[in-house]
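Bit of a strange request maybe. I'm writing a small parser for C-alpha cell strings and I need a real example to test against, not something I typed by hand. Could someone generate the C-alpha cells for this chain?
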Amino acid sequence: MNQYVIADPKRCIGCNTCMASCSQEHQRQGLQSAPRLQVMRNRLDSAPVMCHQCEDAPCAQVCPVNAITRENDAIHLNESLCVSCKLCGIACPFGAITFSGSTPVDIPRDCNTWKAQPAPRAPRAVSPFLDCVPGIRAVAVKCDLCSFSPQGPACITSCPTQAITLVTAGLSARASQQKRLNAMTVFPADLPVDLTAFTAPDAETKS
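Reply from user aminoacidic:
Good idea to test on real output. This should exercise your parser:
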C-alpha cells in the first residue's frame, strides 16, 4: 500500500500555512516552488486537496517518458524528465497535478540582438493546461511526500492545528481493525436476526 497524506476538514482553519511551507521546502531543494497542495474552501469547512498516491497511478500510466514512478511506497515525479505534455494532469482524477513555469538558467542579459528579438509578451493566464508562455517550459508538479526531508512532509510539520496526517500501511491496518471491532460491538455475531423484517410487504399476498 502506498503512503498518502490526508487532511481533517474539521481541524483545518484555512490558513494556507501548509501551502507556504510546501513551496518553501521544495524551493530550498532546487525544485519548482509551486505548492503541491491547494486549500479548498466552502461555506463551513476548508481542507487541502493533494495527491492521493493512487495504487494504479493513472498519471504514471500515461506519462510518455516514465517521469512518474513508484518509489518507497509513493508515486514520485522526476521534474527533470518532464516534457510538458500535461497528460498526467489530465489523467489525474483528483486534480492534484499542476504545472509551474521553468525558465532556462544563466541566460546572458545581452543575448537579444536584432537577429534574436525578445520573446513576445505572454498572453493573459487562462489555465495551467491551456497557457503557453514563450520561453518558459511548463513542468508538472505533484506531492512527493517530501521524500528528501528526514522530517517528512512539510505540510504535516507546519500545520498549526495538526489537521494533516501521513497514512502508512501500519496505520491503515490499525484503522481497519478498529472499524471491524466497532462493527462487532454494534452488530454482535450472536445477535438473532429476524429475516421477516426484511421481507417485502406484499410477499405474503403474492404467495
